[in-house]
Amino acid sequence: MNTADYIKHEADEIASRTGRYIPPYRLANLMKTAQRITDLLVRSDIAMTYDEIQLVLGIVQGAVGRAIGKETD
After folding, report:
1. Which residue in 1, 3, 19, 31 has its CB near the most CB atoms, within 10 A?
2. pTM recorded for the entire structure
3. Buried b (16+ CB within 10 A) or exposed e, 30-68
4. CA-to-CA distance for 55 and 48, rounded, in angstroms?
5. In 3D, which of 30, 8, 11 has the Cα closest to residue 20?
């Protein structure tokens, strides 16, 4: 089995278990974005509490849910 076959097998296995496959290079980009958001939320000039951070993230998640037609309560 060559590398491409291993990757395809891995992708198929993960997708069957989770419903999606995120390749490592894409995960790295997502992690960088999450880090930028975290940095913004915890900056000392903003100084949010954990409850306020959850409130902000809930607002964002709700807006995204409405945009894609999957509203949450």
Report:
1. 31
2. 0.71
3. eeeeeeeeeeeeeeeeeeeeeeeeeeeeeeeeeeeeeee
4. 10
5. 11
3-class secondary structure, 43 = coil
Name the one residue in this structure whose structure tokens are 């903003």. Answer: 46
Side chain identity, residue 67: A
Given a contact cutoff of 8 angstroms between Cβ atoms, the answer to whether 16 and 24 are in contact is no
pLDDT in tens, 17-69: 999 999 999 999 999 999 999 999 988 888 899 999 999 999 999 999 999 99
Q: Is-contact 23 31, C-beta < 8 A?
A: no
